[in-house]
Amino acid sequence: MESDVITLTDDEFEQNTYLIKFKNQNILIDAGISIEKIKSVIDINKINKIILTHGHYDHIRTAIFFDKSKIYAHFNEKIVLESPAYNLSSFFKNHIIISGINYLKGNLIKMDNDIEVFHTPGHTSGSIIVKIGNNLFTGDTLFYDSIGRTDLPTGNEKKLNESLEIFLNFDKDTIIYPGHGRNAKLKEVFKRNEYLHTYYQK
């Protein structure tokens, strides 16, 4: 199933927010870009779902502008989303608490059949990646040439390294869209990303 992807990149954190048009739905992956920039490409009332790959400030700042019933995150991320200290918004003197949203449980969650959410703890305890069509939105779990840091609240280096093994299960022509940086086919990422070298020959 094909999908159209619009990438909106924030100037301050270079964070990528994605708008995906898929099967008559408008899906927003992460909500870190300014609301004005989102409004420049779509009427926000026409966005059907907002899926948060994790709860850090640079990925959730715009979530407060949306109906909570449209927002989804992993249950294990609840502690991050509801704590300004854990989601780092207090560090930027912008105390954000995201609560009352839809929480997903489990390691693999299927939404509307063709949207798959995979729990990939490590960057944070409730980090996820989202597969929509042939596109994989990897948040801060996997970048083109690196991975997310693990020294922030609920981060865990061992768990992130274990989570990286999930990328062995996807077709290498799958395109990754990370939370920061450029998109690329997974087969190119396996060659370029030193954190995936361990798995490249498998």
Shape: globular
Q: Mind telling me the C-alpha Rg?
A: 16 Å
**Poorly predicted runs of 5 or more residues:** none
Proportion in helices: 10-25%
Number of strand segments: 12
The assigned CATH architecture is: 4-Layer Sandwich
Order of helices and strands: EEEHEHEHEEEEEHEEHH
Number of contiguous helices: 6
> What is the CATH fold-level name?
Metallo-beta-lactamase, Chain A
Q: Taking all residues together, what is the mean pLDDT?
A: 94
How many domains?
1
How is the main sheet built?
Answer: 6 strands, mixed
From the N-terminal CA to the C-terminal CA, the straight-line distance is: 28 Å
CATH class type? Alpha Beta
Within CATH, the superfamily carries the name Ribonuclease Z/Hydroxyacylglutathione hydrolase-like
Please supply descriptive tags for the structure shown above.
202 residues, six-stranded mixed sheet, 6 helices, 15% helix, 26% strand
How would you characterize the overall build of this protein?
This protein has a single domain, classed as 4-Layer Sandwich (Metallo-beta-lactamase, Chain A). The protein starts with a strand and ends with a helix. 15% of the residues lie in helices and 26% in strands. It is α/β, with parallel strands linked by helices. A hairpin with a 2-residue loop joins strand 2 (16-22) and strand 3 (25-29). The longest helix has 7 residues, at 157-163.
